[in-house]
Design a protein that fits this description.
The protein has about 150 residues and is mainly beta. The protein has one domain. It is built from one helix and ten strands. Strands 1, 2, 3, 4, 5, 6, 7, 8, 9 and 10 form a ten-stranded antiparallel β-sheet that branches. A hairpin with a 2-residue loop joins β6 and β7.
Length: about 150
Amino acid sequence: MPTELGSYVAGQILTATDLNDIATWTTYTPSFSAGVTVGNGTWDAAYNIVNEILFFQGKFTLGSTSAITGSVGLTIPDSRTISANTEILGNCRLVSGSGVFYGAVQESTSTSLTVFVYNSSSTYLSNSNLSATVPATWATNDTIAISYCAKIN
């Protein structure tokens, strides 16, 4: 039974269950491709796919044995890849202590993304890589919340 919009065939009978299953959110535990020691940190994340568009929302909460060690990379869910020349439309909210920072998510390879924080040190906003001390010194219970969509193959 197809559960993805666009995978039905002519003559197929659609039931209420079929329609309700389209783009159902799937719980997912992402993998970091770089820059994070997960330790006892936790994910609350899910994704869904409508046609060839992948939607993702998730929040990683650092535990006492977690660390941000460098530029943060994240793998995409699903076995497909990001379509060539696709711009990721993604945002992130970084909470460290009492500081709240905002940033962007963009593709780095066909199967991974990079998380950036906005840097306002010049006339125009630019992206800066996360690190152990950027945008702040990370600690237990700090969070990285991410939301993005991408065209996938």
